[in-house]
């Protein structure tokens, strides 16, 4: 798929394997349209790119939510989005509903079960009673407007308790989810990069050698040194 004449940097092409197709598909699958208000939960690599692609689809307002200030600052810097730290609000979902005057048209969950857990969720997961956190979906259920769409891109596995199905049912919410069909999307994204429509290297915060990989994984896992995306170079 990548011609030998390609002049793009390796770091750009690297993300064609997962991050870019997943983020792009999330926005496409959510059916983001011009004029939409879009909330993206999570400012990791996929969340950051989903924010960018939402703008490219014509969204009039893009809001980013996370609990790590450095990731929110990065989102604001590269994507010019409104940012909110959910740890600073008693009810993030209700607040988002209020400032969007009834809720966002589309909410994209780019967090999944490995997001920040409540104490009860943490214990439940340790006892294998709970797959992980449901916090992103609880925020999404409140933040999406009536007849809106929630796109679940973050990974959820196992069983879940206290899922607020009624909150979604009463608002006629459309829920879409799953794994991105990566391969069919690659050519389209490659062409967009060739045309310089976006720069995926903006999500990179660290470049290290393979010898430094163990420490790089620790930095990434422990949220040290403002780490968002690490590229290992041979």
TrEMBL record:
InterPro entries: ADH-like_C, NAD(P)-bd_dom_sf. It holds the Pfam family ADH_zinc_N. GO terms for molecular function: metal ion binding. Residues 45-112 form the Alcohol dehydrogenase-like C-terminal domain. Keywords: Metal-binding, Zinc. Its cofactor is Zn(2+). Gene3D superfamilies: Medium-chain alcohol dehydrogenases, catalytic domain, NAD(P)-binding Rossmann-like Domain. PANTHER family: DEHYDROGENASE, ZINC-CONTAINING, PUTATIVE (AFU_ORTHOLOGUE AFUA_2G02810)-RELATED (PTHR42813:SF2), ZINC-TYPE ALCOHOL DEHYDROGENASE-LIKE (PTHR42813). This is Alcohol dehydrogenase-like C-terminal domain-containing protein.
